[in-house]
Amino acid sequence: MSEQRIIRFMRIRTPMAILSLLVVIAGLVAMVTKGLNLGLDFTGGTTAEINYVQPVDQEAVRLALEKNGFADVVVQHVGSATDVILRMPPQKGHETNMSADILAAANFDPANPATIKQVESVGSQVGGEMYQNSLLAIGLSLFLMMIYVAFRFRMKFAVGAVVSLLHDVLFTVGAFAIFGFPFDLTVLAAVLALIGYSLNDTIVIFDRIRENFRKLRKADPIEIVNISLTETLRRTIMTVMTVLVVVVALLWLGGPALKWFSVAMLIGLFAGTYSSIYIATNYALMMGLDKDDFVVQPKVVEEGEELL
User: Which CATH number fits domain 3-38+126-293: 2.60.40.1120, 1.20.810.10, 3.40.50.1100, 1.20.1640.10?
Assistant: First the structure.
């Protein structure tokens, strides 16, 4: 690759590292002060799917439920204007006859009767256990990723990859805390998917760096990293655009059920692409990455020792 075609990514690695640190700190502060807007999957509550004969207004359904003693109800259309889904936290006074009470409140218009298709309730204890298991799943996945990268490359790369993945998780979850977006199991699924996506992108870059360290013996580490990032840039852009098309389609056509999954994927897609360049590789450089990590040194034969 000619000198003119190399993009000097690492020229701004220090400002990018500072920016990343500030963004992560802002997300952590939001998580501590505001907390996550946890969905019913984690806090407990009730969801119900209701079908009407004719199209129904969401606000009319919500007001009818509030008049019958249901508080903090979220009403959304699902698929069509005649189907709605209700989400609500635990409701005092309705624990024993939840389905019957919801149906009675939903039938506010005799000309447009309602039928309940499904009612699901999650207890607060179960939701708390799911939240703890979610944190455990994220932590375990990061640990296993570090073992995999350490086995395939070097520990410098392994720790850099985990720091990069942790950045992606904190960036995405922090954004949800800052803006107050609902955080439920679909968002958790997006975070776990992003860990796999980001690691794949990082592995491709690491593999090219290892290859160039073995080919370009006289180049310094920063130059080799810049060359490797430039060579993989086209592949990175094509991958990002392909995933972006799918995520935008999910956001546009997936309806309320996939809305926050798609939002998490969009945020994480940006974070994962950025961190593969300015977090994972930058950390390896900070830890003293050099050719000795990849080039096999010839064995020194002592005097009198036979060379096998």
Answer: 1.20.1640.10
